[in-house]
Amino acid sequence: MRTSKLRNAIATLILGTSALTPVYATDTIADTGAATYRPDITFTLRTNIAEGKLVFVGDSGDIKGKLNPQLNVPEGAVVQINLVNGDGAVHDIAVPQFGADSDNISGQGASTAIVFRANKKGEFEYLCTLPGHKLAGMLGKLVVGDTGQNVANTFQGSEVSRSPMEVGEPVGDRGPREMTVNLETTEVVGQLADGTTYNYWTFNDKVPGPFIRARVGDTITVNLANAKDSHMIHSVDFHAVTGPGGGAAVTQAAPGQSKSFTFKALNPGLYVYHCATPMVAQHISNGMYGMILVEPEGGLSEVDHEFYVMQGELYTTQRHGTQGQHEFSLEKLLDEKPEHLTFNGTMNALTKTHRMESAVGDDVRIFFGVGGPNATSSFHVIGEIFDNVYNLADLTSPPQHNVQTVSVPPGGATMVEFRTEVPGKYILVDHALSRLEKGLAGFLHVSGDHQPAIFHSSEAADPASGH
Questions:
Q1: C-alpha to C-alpha distance for 195 and 49, rounded to whole angstroms
Q2: Going edge to edge, which strands form the sheet with 356-359?
């Protein structure tokens, strides 16, 4: 009989030599020396596909039949979670906050288990760590102790994600005019993910800042007010501005101060703006970026839908997936190793919070920018081809056609257009696809009749694909 790593870990727990021991096992539960130990509480989960997602399903007791059930345990308890493969795909199970991570199992009926001591009170994640499986639905909650309230509610911040539908009014064929832009810099505890918060720095309480829509030749006055309760000096640098620091030289505003400047929009294009107070990369990473569209004379062509999407990075001391309040990490920022990558500021912005929709036959335009501060994006919509790409957001040169993926540098932008011709769920990604596992995804939902002349198959769609 094989020596069981699970048995060894259990012995460690019983002897008290470690209060936090990860367990790895491919053995069945019967082969783990179960008679030699008594876990305080045991759960059995089975992998399956349900409601179009990969899920954990409770296999017995109070959680039987429940999808991704909440697991409640006393503080200090020795917890065993058994996992049985019910769908035949490769899976594992982990509770990262307790260092517990099983071996992979494949084939229906295969099983594994983890054992750990739940010595920290609060709410934590259990999940499958295989690439894409968490995003596909294999994520549940482990609640340790009588918290009095759900930790996900304890760590409840403001909704800071910007709706991608907030694109302003097209300029049409109007002439140049004077306009005013009012920006307030705020420091807001925002909802990064379910049960996770972060102290964002924002323009007008949202990430990205407001989408500003102007016309070439407009004269624009920017009023910047730094909220009284801010702790930092803030400013704004518009890449659309011809002038010192793009405006940053004259807008360094202490808490409670206001600054302003006026500029003429000389060049059409789609431009990033951001805070430019040292250290600039920290201000940008914390959420202080947005875009201004300077439309050419005569405006842009009409389309059915326009969306505003920006990619950003967050550098936190806590690892991606950890619940609770996350804190900024200067070390990770300088090493350019973000824990989170976002579209429109949060993990859920374009997958749960805001619903981007189109219909078969509609023309879609996406204003896409990278706040950064460091990573170049390879912007791609899975299952679509960009009919028109205005490379580097050059709106006066002829667009490129039939493009699959667009490279956009930090502090840069692009404008893409395409017709949605087949119904389904289309996923917005950075094609540096490891970033998908750190939150970088969005959905475009396309409704309408099937188009067999364009796409058809006798195969049933696999719900696990996420499309």
A1: 25
A2: 356-359, 442-447, 424-430, 377-381, 406-408
**Fold classification of 5-152 (topology level):** Immunoglobulin-like (2.60.40)
For the chain, the straight-line distance linking the first and the last C-alpha, in angstroms and rounded, comes to: 44
Judge whether 354 is annotated as a binding position.
Answer: no
- Mean pLDDT over 382-396 rounds to 97
- Compute the distance between CA of residue 150 and CA of residue 158 in angstroms, rounded to an integer: 17
Find out whether the peptide bond into 310 is cis, omega within 30 degrees of 0.
no
Say if CB 123 and CB 195 are below 8 A apart. Answer: yes
Judge contact between 338 and 332, C-beta under 8 A: yes
305 belongs to an annotated ligand binding site: no
- Residues belonging to the chain: 467
Beta strand 305-314 with 362-372: parallel, antiparallel or unpaired?
parallel
Residue 91 marked in a binding site: no
Domain ranges of the chain: 5-152, 178-187+204-295, 305-465
Contact 398, 304 (CB under 8 A): no
Q: Judge whether 231 is annotated as a binding position.
A: no
pLDDT of residue 435: 94
> Does the annotation list 283 as a binding residue?
yes
pLDDT tens column, 200-228: 999 999 999 999 999 999 999 999 999 99
What is the fold, at CATH topology level, of the domain defined by 305-465? Answer: Immunoglobulin-like (2.60.40)
**pLDDT 10s digits, 332-355:** 999 999 999 999 999 999 999 999
Sheet hosting strand 122-127, strand order edge to edge: 71-73, 139-144, 122-127, 94-95, 100-101
CATH 2.130.10.10 for domain 178-187+204-295, yes or no, is no
Q: How many CA atoms lie within 13 A of 39 on its CB side?
A: 23
5-152 and 305-465 agree in CATH topology = yes
Question: What is the C-alpha separation between 58 and 69, in angstroms, rounded?
Answer: 6
Is 320 assigned to a binding site? no
User: Per DSSP, what are the bridge partners of residue 389?
Assistant: 400, 416
